[in-house]
Amino acid sequence: FASQPWNSGGSWINAPGSFLFSLEKPGEGVPAARTLRYNNDGHGILGSPNHGPLFGRGNDLALNCSSRGNSQSRMGFSYGASEGLLRCSSLTAEGTDFTVADYEVWAVTLN
Helix, strand, or coil here: 51? Predict the structure, then answer.
């Protein structure tokens, strides 16, 4: 979840309140989440014309939109561990590098 809109401007976007989640914690089949470690660190999202959204300065989650390959999940740089994820370096069961099978875009609506 990104609290600010992604763009292709080529710079970091301060996005306090952003978090990353997985519907299944790798190897355990339960949901997992990681919050932005420091809400004002300025590295919530990178807006870039060269690839899709990049969350965190260490490629905590980097989606490559030009091809479905070469995406990465290297957790722990800007997005910290939640309960039970302290030893998990990725949100994917496949490891740090992965291929995207399908994209889903969700929106948060407030009533």
Answer: coil
As a whole number of angstroms, the distance between CA 28 and CA 42 comes to: 32
The angle at the Cα of 65, spanning 44 to 103, to the nearest 5 degrees, equals 85
- pLDDT tens across 73-87, in order? 777 788 876 544 443
Output the CA–CA distances (angstroms, integers) from residue 1 to 6, 14, 41, 69, in the order listed.
Answer: 11, 13, 16, 22
pLDDT, tens digit, for every residue of 37-53? 887 778 899 988 877 78
Cβ-based neighbour number of residue 37 at 10 Å: 15
Rounded CA separation 17/86 (Å) = 20
CA distance 102 to 56: 22
Q: Given this model, what pLDDT does residue 84 score?
A: 44
* Cα distance between residue 83 and residue 88, in whole Å: 11
